[in-house]
Amino acid sequence: MMKLNHECVRDLMLAIESVEIVEPFLLTYFYEDQESLKIYTLDELFYTTLVLEGAGFLNAEDRSHGSGPEAIIRTITWEGHQFLDNIRDDGVWKDTKAVVSKLSSVSLGVVSDVASKIIAELIKRN
Fold this sequence. Notes:
Blueprint: H1 6-18, E1 25-26, H2 27-33, H3 42-54, E2 58-62, E3 71-76, H4 78-87, H5 90-100, H6 108-125
Antiparallel strand pairs: 1-3, 2-3
Helix pairs in contact: 4-6, 5-6
């Protein structure tokens, strides 16, 4: 059983958002082209992709075969974009990680909620 890595979630979502691809693409080819993702294994990115699809953040499909894991990534969903908007800013992300690191585990929904509250506090202060 793999553990969901929130850094991998953020990095993968930001990498997917950064490319201007209108056609579905294979995770393995995407991985080979994205230097920012090289700190993760393909298995970790595959697992993260499937979790993000299950959470409703990505439209993706498991296309694994005998030679290893494979996924087709189609689009980021509305929910995925909302999540990204909450965690995109490096300062907000750092503060969010500081809050959620005090807990043994948190869902992506909680991570997004914490980031949203941090953003609201920043807006209030300005």
